[in-house]
Write a structure and sequence with these properties.
It comes from Funneliformis mosseae (Endomycorrhizal fungus). It is found in: Membrane; Mitochondrion. This is 14299_t:CDS:1. 87% of the residues lie in helices and 0% in strands. The chain has 4 helices and no strands. It has helices spanning 3-24, 37-46, 51-74, 79-177. Residues 1-14 and 16-29 have low confidence and may be disordered.
């Protein structure tokens, strides 16, 4: 590299370092170095940069890397936040499980109640059916006895009519013969 290029790079780096310093001083970025800064400065000096230029480039590169790391970590979740989220998720899942169990118990109790109601209703219907059958049999028996009584009465009336007819025919025959 030529000397003019070094000056241009040095000025650009110095300007960048100053503007980055202003924006980073207010931030909560950990100023950990993500590379070996002293060996980087030494390497730049071996390539022909002055100590001041090398330090300016190193600071600029370090600040760019810090900014990149800040951008990366701003989208990340801290371990504590992740543990909180996991804990609240587990609590929510536990609550959901207990609610499901309550609903299942309620559903089971409701099904049991419905089964009990159905069995009671079935028993009531059977009882009513038995009562109706007994009433029907009683009515049938009454009808049969009435029919039997009517048949007996008809036979009696028939016999009496036959007697009167025989008596009348005998009397009429005697009158006819006696004349």
């Amino acid at each position: 590299m030529g000397f003019n290029n070094n000056i241009t790079i040095s000025r650009a780096c110095s300007q960048r370092v100053n503007s980055v310093n202003r924006s980073f001083n207010n931030s909560n970025v950990n100023n950990l170095e993500h590379f070996d800064t002293s060996s980087f400065v030494e390497r730049l000096e071996k390539e022909g940069f002055t100590r001041q230029q090398s330090e300016a480039i190193m600071k600029s590169l370090s600040e760019v890397m810090n900014e990149s790391m800040q951008n990366l970590t701003s989208n990340m979740v801290t371990l504590t936040d992740q543990e909180k989220i996991v804990y609240t998720t587990k609590v929510d899942i536990s609550k959901l499980k207990s609610e499901i169990q309550i609903v299942e118990k309620s559903d089971f109790n409701t099904q049991g109640g419905v089964r009990l109601d159905l069995n009671l209703e079935r028993g009531r219907i059977k009882d009513e059916s038995r009562v109706l059958e007994a009433s029907l049999k009683e009515t049938h028996t009454k009808i049969e006895s009435e029919i039997a009584g009517l048949r007996t009465n008809m036979e009696t009336v028939k016999f009496q009519i036959l007697q009167y007819m025989i008596g009348t025919l005998t009397g009429a025959g005697a009158l006819i013969l006696g004349k």
